[in-house]
Write a structure and sequence with these properties.
With 232 residues, this protein is an alpha+beta fold. It has nine helices and eight strands. The chain has a domain of 159 residues: 3-Layer(aba) Sandwich (Glutaredoxin).
Length: 232
């Protein structure tokens, strides 16, 4: 049976979820961009800190619905526990990210926190991650979310979503634009986003973007020029 603490936390989360549902209607013309990642993969950290952040330059985020899915190459055990590729600390941080995304659904807010954490990964200073709440102006409710067990529930949902990917992810970072995987070309995501956008309000970032081939399901597996963390 769930503890009283769990129900208290759930009641605290409900206003955030309700606000998200009522104030963030789906923008039909926006391009869907999904990142499947794990917190301690150094190549995910590099992509988030040095590449994905470009979404917030020159108005590109205005045409993108960004989804961050912090599960990556973790494995679900028969007893419901998780084994993460980079150890238990990664499982903790994945859950913290999941809680932060849920409690602070505005993408500008939760991305700032995740960007801060991943920068610490690159700096080999990850033990300071808790300070990212202060640095980004967020409260520490996600820590309570994790301690209550709700973070694990969110992670199970992300696990199910990751397992249902078709085609299956081969590595992280695994990037999808409008449901299509970019595979080894993930660092070129800006060009794919700009090509996929069908609206009239073209941001500055797309006015100088180079053309890319049409996306399809016939990608051939190639030697990766960008290092990744492979799924086992």
């Amino acid at each position: 049976m769930a503890s009283p603490r769990f129900f208290l936390l759930t009641s605290q989360l409900f206003p955030f979820l309700l606000l998200f549902i009522t104030s963030h209607p789906c923008q039909a013309q926006n391009v869907s961009l999904s990142l499947y990642y794990e917190t301690l993969c150094p190549y995910c950290a590099d992509f988030i800190v040095n590449d994905l952040v470009k979404l917030f330059d020159e108005g590109l985020i205005s045409i993108v619905n960004l989804r961050l899915v912090p599960w990556g190459n973790a494995v679900m055990q028969p007893d419901g526990s998780f084994v993460c590729q980079h150890g238990e600390y990664e499982c903790l941080l994945n859950s913290i990210d999941a809680c932060t995304i849920t409690i602070y659904p505005d993408v500008d807010r939760h991305f700032r926190f995740i960007h801060c954490v991943e920068r610490l990964v690159l700096e080999n200073n990850i033990n300071e991650w808790v300070h990212c709440f202060d640095r980004t102006g967020l409260g520490t409710v996600p820590i309570d979310c994790y301690k209550s067990g709700y973070g694990n529930l969110l992670e199970k949902q992300y696990a199910a979503e990751t397992f249902q990917l078709n085609p299956s992810h081969e590595f992280v970072p695994w990037v999808l634009v409008n449901g299509q995987p970019l595979r080894e070309d993930f660092k070129n995501f800006v060009s794919y986003v700009c090509k996929a956008y069908q609206g009239k309000q073209v941001p500055q970032a797309c006015q100088s973007s180079l053309p890319v081939p049409l996306m399809n399901h016939t990608f051939k597996k190639a030697n990766l020029s960008n290092p990744v963390c492979y799924a086992k």
